[in-house]
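User: Predict the complex with phosphoribosyl ATP.
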Amino acid sequence: MEVLREVYEIIKQRIEEKPEGSYVAKLTTDDKKKAVNKICEKIGEEATELVLAAKDNNKDEVIYESADLIFHTMVLLAYLGIEFDELMEEFERRKK
Ligand SMILES: N=c1c2ncn([C@@H]3O[C@H](COP(=O)(O)OP(=O)(O)OP(=O)(O)O)[C@@H](O)[C@H]3O)c2ncn1[C@@H]1O[C@H](COP(=O)(O)O)[C@@H](O)[C@H]1O
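Assistant: Here is the predicted structure with phosphoribosyl ATP placed in the model:
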């Protein structure tokens, strides 16, 4: 879990500083509507790839595509100004 928080902080930094060569910066350089479209498109692609990997029963691919999907979801949340802890609080609320 700690690594997710660390990556989230790096994503926030990339969105803020937009360093050259950054994938996150590339996804978020356009105006807000375009950037959200671009990120959501990647989320759609990665979700489809995960579903296909699961249907193929390919464990390695399922792990790889899940990481891609979670990463792009984190980029979207960070871009929308949501804090990692806000997501964690939602999971805490749901915990039974
Ligand atoms: N965890 C990730 C991560 N997971 C996936 N990806 C990128 O997400 C993309 C996945 O898209 P695809 O599977 O479609 O592969 P692709 O064809 O290469 O992608 P496109 O060129 O079509 O967008 C790839 O370009 C991967 O490099 C990631 N890029 C960055 N990170 C983390 O984000 C941090 C910031 O990265 P930068 O913004 O590049 O500095 C890094 O420190 C990493 O920890």
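The first helix runs from residue 2 to 17.
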